[in-house]
Amino acid sequence: MSLGDEHETSGGYGGTGQTRTRLPERGGDPYGGARRGGRSSSRSLVTVVGVVVLLIAAIAFANRGGDASSSADDSDDSPKAAATAPSGKKPVGAKSAGIPTGYAHDAQGAQSAAANYSVALGSAEMFDKSRRREIITTVYAPDVAAARQADLDKAYSSGEFLTNIGLDKDGRAPAGQTFVSRVVPVGTKVTASGSSTATVEVWYTSLFGLSGEGSTNPVTESWYTTTYQLKWIDNDWKVTDFQQKDGPVPVGRDQKASTADDMTKAVEEYGGFTYAR
Length: 277
Hints:
Layout (H helix, E strand, L loop, with lengths): L2 H4 L32 H10 L23 H5 L17 E3 L2 E3 L5 H15 L7 H11 L2 H15 L2 H6 L13 E16 L3 E15 L8 E14 L2 E11 L13 H10 L8
Antiparallel strand pairs: 1-2, 3-4, 4-5, 5-6
Helix pairs in contact: 5-6
């Protein structure tokens, strides 16, 4: 099966839902009273330049084993496996350029690779030239990486693009502010597979913007689904292509936005995860 045979484009979710955000009451605006302008413009710019904003939502689950005193009735109440349930396999232990690598040559390994690669490609590190090149070399297939490198270097060095998202020409945030770009995957699924290829969809939420007093581009959340074309190369899964679409987007709650200090602390104090099925 060829990559071309596997690749299928499905309809987008754009326009089917809206997420509501309740801003803090007057006088308590964490961004100094400034509201983000041109959100759709900034988001479209990110999409156009191939910044795959994919953030993985950590799935916490309790795994309680029975003991000698457990009855037969207890075992009958154990949770049944579902399509999105963890497989019980240990996460990969190897890393390349700080990115988990060395996935199993099966559908679950492909899903784990797509999820972890989503986090790397959607991270703030992509705005650092040297770090970006390490990520691209690690995530993409060798014959694709070179072309992607040139395209992304050009995109990320665009003065207009960087200005629109509030960064300077070197991709750095203004003094006193923190640039946030994180992808949190919510779920994955394999839509096509072969002996050395796989098509995996990753549904995720993303956090993007500047946290800090006076930010004109506050951190906001968005929802996307990215379809990855993966190929088994040198005993690992590598990205050969991807397509991104909006949604599915959940209905937003009327929650008060956090202060700039709380948002900055959260970004600095909460680390990421390695994902495996």
